[in-house]
Amino acid sequence: MRKRFSFVLLLSCLFLNIFSGIVLAEKIELSFWHAMGGGTTGVIQRMVEDFNYTHPDIEVSVQYKGSYRETVNAAIAAARQGTPPSVIQSFEVGTRQNVDSGIFVPFEDLLVEGEVNWDDFLDPVLNYYRVDGKLYSMPFNSSNAILYYNKDMFAKAGLDPGNPPTTFEGIREASQLIVDKGLAKTGTTWALHSWFYEEWMANLGQNLVNKENGRAGFADNAYLTSDKSLRIIKWWKELYDNGLWVNAGIENWSQARQNFVSKQAAMLITSTSSVTSLSNEGRGQGFEVGTAPMPIPEGQERNGAVIGGASLWILKNKDETVEQAAKEFVKWMSLPENQVRWHKATGYFPIRKSAVDLLKLEGWFEDYPNYKTAFEQLQSTKIVRPTQGALIGRFAEVRTIIEKAVEAVLNDNGSIEDIMEQANKDIKKSLEEYNRVIK
């Protein structure tokens, strides 16, 4: 009897130890740093919570780290101190710097063959993030710039609210009519941001920098004085001089948005990521918002858009299990159903064909046509160097140089040609310094 009791006790202890090992096994802890502020922070938080719920062996902690620049800089500093986060969200123009930093694991290096069906991803999206034929990060929140307009104001001005302007000339004419009729203080607005200039350069088929836009080698010069560049700047300046475009300030997205929502401007150029919020805010202010593709000069061939937004980067870790868990998290964030959810909540377009199919199946684009504009603009984009996007180090600094040059043009601080030539020289100096350090 005593032996039987001892045997039962032994078995009980064995099963308890096994059960305890399962229950008490330590989770793999990941940290995810992102740059999505405002209401989008909550969307990210809920998605991470859902991942944690469906992956009981992994626990992701999520933290908003400020702007894209601040997020990347914080990650680089943490990596140097030996305490890197597991995954970060980095803007598209940080790609060259991220690759050269050496602190990230190329995403494709973590995959086994066939683990991800890359045929399901939209070509222009993958086209941007491939460097020397390798995908270093997983695309996540992809965008391009589009035109938003006040359909009610257009109708009052005698303009067709179903036929918004798609050319530089059309923007100028519509703006002039709206101002002349006293419907708004100005025709259009956008933040004084290099991104829009870059989008126009690509759409006109003009590389931003040499070495095939930095894709065939380290770029060391820019094309700010090209005919197409000067055409963009001269149009921009003409709008400003005639009171048809209001300067919201360098990278002042919120002020540009406020100019539009408050009906001070009839049109706004900004990211497709604002479709959901701007449509809602417009309704709250008593007007309907419409969307249209980026305007280009009349008679100019349309090449399409450069991908904006950001991708997810996995940082190197001494523990391979952490890198593999990070890979699972990044893959999960790109699942079709999650891309549909993300698109509806924000306006960033889905990066997977199957996600687009799901949206079409439910009639999403027919019911909410404002979301269709950016996607159609992306679909019609030609796969050429200008639309692949520039790949350069110190991109943030280059943007600052361009923005200050545009500001100098607006303020009549010299001729357009001289100002853009000096900006070219400043960019050349910056790129050459970066290249010397990297090489």
TrEMBL record:
It is found in: Cell envelope. Keywords: Signal, Transport. One of its GO terms (cellular component) is cell envelope. Pfam families: SBP_bac_8. It comes from the Bacteria. PANTHER family: ARABINOSE-BINDING PROTEIN-RELATED, SN-GLYCEROL-3-PHOSPHATE-BINDING PERIPLASMIC PROTEIN UGPB. Belongs to the bacterial solute-binding protein 1 family. This is Extracellular solute-binding protein.
